[in-house]
Amino acid sequence: MEDLKEYMYINELLLIYGKTLTTRQLKIMEDYYKYNLGVQEIADELNISKAAVSDAIKVSTRHLENLESIVGHYAYRQKVKALHDELKEITLDDKVKERLTKEEDDGI
What CATH number corresponds to the domain at position 62? Predict the structure, then answer.
């Protein structure tokens, strides 16, 4: 279960900060985290060594986590979602519940 949480976390960081990676780093990270390809599969596809793929994953992951520690966008989104969920739970107003549900559907 912990691995799944890690994959989901890195995928969120890729959505937020992925454009700060090089084209090759982004390709490797998406192949590994989004498409669940193995290191060997990625290495074969890009005609590079497994060590190069592993290194790119480590360097890119550190980069994304470093950006998150500086910017904090993922943490902010988590706080907003928690508040949103709390409001939806405690409100009695149907119009407010409807609006919160619409925002959820729109991807807040």
Answer: 1.10.10.10
3-state DSSP of 55-77: HHHHHHHHHHHHHHHHHCHHHHH
In contact, 108 and 80? CB cutoff 8 Å: yes
Q: Which structural domain, as residue segments, surrounds residue 16?
A: 2-71
Q: Are 105 and 88 in contact (CB under 8 A)?
A: no
Task: Note the pLDDT tens digit of each residue in 37-79.
Answer: 999 999 999 999 999 999 999 999 999 999 999 988 778 787 8
Number of domains in the chain: 2
pTM across the whole model: 0.73
